[in-house]
Amino acid sequence: MSKPLEVTITVGTSFSIGGNFAEPDLKKPVGERSIYCDGNGLDFMLDRFSAHNISASFFIETAQHCYFGDEPMGRVVDKIQKAGQDTQLMVHPCWYYYDKENYFSQNDSCVDRPYEELKEIIKRSLENFVKLTGKKPQVFRAGNCQVDRQLYKILHELEIPMSSSVGLGMYIAEGKEFLLYNGRLKINDVMEVPLCTYQDKDVMGRYPTKTLQISSCSWREMQCVLKKARKIGIENVVLLTQPFDYIKKKDMSYREITVNRVNQLRLEKLCSFIDEHDQDFVSVDFEEKTETWKDIEQEDIKKFRIPSRYRNGRKIENFINDKFWNF
């Protein structure tokens, strides 16, 4: 019997700029509310993971300490760790704009920055991560999945052995080594474990890429991806979600929010599916797989396509969910 497909749910755990850059006099960054979401964000996720024995990796954004200090994200990390879930490092460089001692722009990309500047940003974020979690990260994620070769060189110098930053449906980096749909590949001595990306057929007969995310992929689509990945021999699938995926908000300030029932049901069905089909699928986090994954590359199966009917169903479902507040 073949091994179960390993499914890694990754959670981007970050506070929100809240529209402050666009309207600095009217709006402020949003801290814990953007993660807790009145109980419908982080608490909902941890409850579902616990109920279905799911191990997930929470990528903790630590540059936000420039605005909020350590305590707010420290409380979030404490809750995640007490729930027995994995924590790894994520960086959104834009938060260093709030650094009162040094000037940094509002640029939120890790791409095409001066070498010493980017290294300083990641080094300081790493140090803050250690302070918050009590451990050194084994895996890095770039905000918005924006990467280049220089970033991996810096990660290697800072002794971070792995990255999970490539998501072709979100950002396509310069260089053919970054055209990763799945699998694992070493880039500048750092093992990249990309978010799962697949193709479907649009009405023009083209095959656009789609990165696997709770917020934008229907459950039927996710189920098809998982089953096909196992059938064609992919060993591991990485997918993305965030705590705010499970609410709808009126504006960037999070003043008025309601439950996103569609996305909550997607997570519940995913967790239940993995739990109930443990002969074929198993949840794994980066902490438990680091020793295995950091040195062993895995073939990237690029032509990974699903039927167009799933694309059509997803677009209808997402349109209705976005259009109607109480759907």
Question: Your description of this structure?
Answer:
It contains 10 helices and 13 strands. By secondary structure, the chain is an alpha/beta fold. The chain has a single domain (5-323), classed as Alpha-Beta Barrel (TIM Barrel), CATH 3.20.20. The strands form 3 sheets. Strands 1, 2, 3, 4, 5, 6, 7, 10 and 13 form a 9-stranded mixed sheet that branches. A two-stranded antiparallel sheet has the order 8-9. A two-stranded antiparallel sheet has the order 11-12. Helix 6 (149-157) links the parallel strand 4 and strand 5. Helix 2 runs parallel beside helix 8 (261-276) and helix 5 crosses helix 6. The longest helix has 19 residues, at 115-133. The protein is globular, with a radius of gyration of 19 Å. It starts with a strand and ends with a helix. The model has no long low-confidence stretch (mean pLDDT 95).
Q: How are the SSEs placed, and which strands pair?
A:
Layout: E1 5-13, H1 33-36, H2 42-51, E2 56-61, H3 65-68, H4 71-82, E3 86-91, H5 115-133, E4 139-142, H6 149-157, E5 162-163, E6 185-187, E7 190-192, E8 197-199, E9 209-211, H7 219-231, E10 236-241, E11 247-249, E12 257-259, H8 261-276, E13 281-283, H9 286-293, H10 308-323
Parallel strand pairs: 1-2, 1-10, 1-13, 2-3, 3-4, 4-5, 5-7
Antiparallel strand pairs: 6-7, 8-9, 11-12
Helix pairs in contact: 2-8, 5-6
